[in-house]
Amino acid sequence: MKEKQLNEKESLELITQMIRNTRQRIEKGNGIPFLIWGYTTVLVSLLVWYLLSTTGNPNWNYLWFLIPVIGFPAMMWAIRKQEKGVKTYIDRVIGYVWIVVGIAGLVVSASAIFLWNLPILFIVILMMGSGTAITGLIIKFKPIIFSGFAGILLSFVCLIVKGYASILLFALIFLVMMVIPGHILNVNKKHY
Question: 10 Å Cβ neighbour count for 51?
């Protein structure tokens, strides 16, 4: 079988179609990853805030590790439940972005708890906001772009707000950065 050589116009059309297909697949109910990670983070944040603020016991910070313990199995379940289809290069790129951001977030979080005193809430929001903005830019979907950049900008407020209030701020930023765009994506699927 002989492969057809594409001219410049055909190449651009193919790339545009791949981006469009990926965007439509992400828009058609694929707010689920944003909702899983967003709601998990918000709920764990509220739990940690409540326990820390009522007891003052710093050991409750270990509960932050509930986020990946809940999030990873929930994502695996959602991926298996999703309709099967051809994965484009753009799909894989977005997956790679989130693998890198997720692993980096986990490593930095573990370092903050076990090794160094880092402004972890700031760093995590900055990283997750970056991943969200990159995803939005790749698929050219404005609500995700805006929420990602909002997360990046709002992360700096975590350097100003101190104490247990910073945990509530962290939860609120994740609500804006992940949960709201996740619902927007799921609402958009109804328009197709």
Answer: 15
Encode pLDDT of 125-166 as tens digits. Answer: 999 999 999 999 988 889 999 999 999 999 999 999 999 999
Q: Dump pLDDT digits (tens) for 57-112.
A: 999 999 999 999 999 999 888 877 766 666 777 778 888 999 999 999 989 988 88
Instruction: Determine, yes or no, domain membership for 8.
Output: no
Q: Is 139 exposed, middle or buried (0-12, 13-18, 19+ CB in 10 A)?
A: buried
Residue 129 covered by a domain = yes
Question: What letter would DSSP give residue 140?
Answer: T
Report yes or no: 101 and 37 within 8 Å, Cβ to Cβ.
Answer: no
pTM, 2 dp: 0.81
Q: Which domain holds residue 58?
A: 14-186
The verdict on residue 136 lying in a domain is yes
Give the total number of structural domains in the chain.
Answer: 1
Helix (H), strand (E) counts: the chain: 8, 0
Please say whether the beta carbons of 174 and 6 come within 8 A: no
